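Submission sheet (multi-component)
Chains listed below:
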Amino acid sequence: MKKALVLIPVLAFALVLAVGLSAQVKKGKTRGALTKQLMGGLVRPNCAGLGAALKKEPADDKAWAALATQAALLNEASYILMADGRCPDGDWKAACDTLRGCSKAVMAKIEAKDLEGANTAFKALTGACGACHKKHKK
Ligand code: HEC
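Outcome: structure written.
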């Protein structure tokens, strides 16, 4: 019985630690958005849309502008994912740095209407998804 009583604070501490650690990855400290929602509503649609649209020469300036918007939102996502105490470690940060740098490169290539360059930078961008998911997406 005494042993069990000693275990209670230990288990409580372990629980707080586990919730705290996973909460950091799944949600920021104060804002409402879940990481899952940011992925499903912001990161994935803009990544998929950009990837699909880069497969052929954009028809006009409006189509280029739509691409630029998607790249810009992915760039913003790299800041959001680092904000509000969400980043748990160096792997997360490195993936966000990749997302940020590569999306900026995609934006520059789109600005220059360089489709091939944009595709190369986009391919590098998608490396960020796998790098972070490998460690943090359970
Ligand atoms: C810095 C880390 C990080 C980066 C970068 C990242 N993700 Fe994620 N992603 C996560 C985490 C963590 C989850 C799991 C969230 C959860 O289930 O709580 C996730 C989940 C997802 C999901 C599943 C969402 C759902 O509804 O279950 C999709 C889709 C996704 N990511 C797409 C992407 C794409 C596409 C990229 C690259 C453009 C990307 N992610 C980059 C961390 C990241």
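Remark: Residues 25-26, 35-36, 39-40, 43-44, 47, 81, 92, 95-96, 99, 128-129, 132-133, 136-137 surround heme C (CB under 6 Å).
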